[in-house]
Amino acid sequence: MSSKQDPPIDYRALAEFRYQIRRFLRFSEQVAREASLEPQHYQLLLALKGLPEGRKATITELAERLQIQHHSAVELINRLVERDLVSKQRDMLDQRQVILSLTPRGEEVLQTLAAYHRAELQIIGPALVAALKAILTDSALATTLQESESHHKNMDQEDQVVQEDK
């Protein structure tokens, strides 16, 4: 929160942005279920494939990416291993860690679902971007968002240092 006089909030812009995000998320959930996956299964496959360079595909990392508890990530991963979508193996450098990877079947399922998601974003993307731009036209809010982004980067760096220390 800013200590300066905050500008008026554009509730319509915020509501429209939230609507557009929710609309996409509903689409994502529906497409995952049509592929006989739970929405979180697709999210985990995507998070695994889309990890930033230099990040290890560990359970802890994926739990963070999905913003879920470690035990919930373990449960999701075990279900995906049972379905031959994800494989697990011990880290050669640190035997305490389990490294995850997509199986060929997991790659195929993810590629299909990601193509549907990209096509949907091509349709609703302009409305989503317009809603976000309407919110960001307020320079004070844009500054707050930049500060928030900087804060999250610092948290990610701190998390990485903690993980490296383990």
Automatic annotation (TrEMBL):
UniProtKB keywords: DNA-binding, Transcription, Transcription regulation
Segments of this protein annotated with the region Disordered: 147-166
GO biological process entries: response to stress
A molecular-function term among this protein's GO annotations: DNA binding
Domain HTH marR-type residue range list: 11-150
UniProt xrefs under Pfam families: MarR_2 (PF12802)
Entries under InterPro entries matching the protein: HTH_MarR-typ, MarR/SlyA-like, Tscrpt_reg_MarR-type_CS, WH-like_DNA-bd_sf, WH_DNA-bd_sf
Stretches with biased composition (Acidic residues): 157-166
Protein name: HTH marR-type domain-containing protein
Source organism per UniProt: Thermogemmatispora aurantia
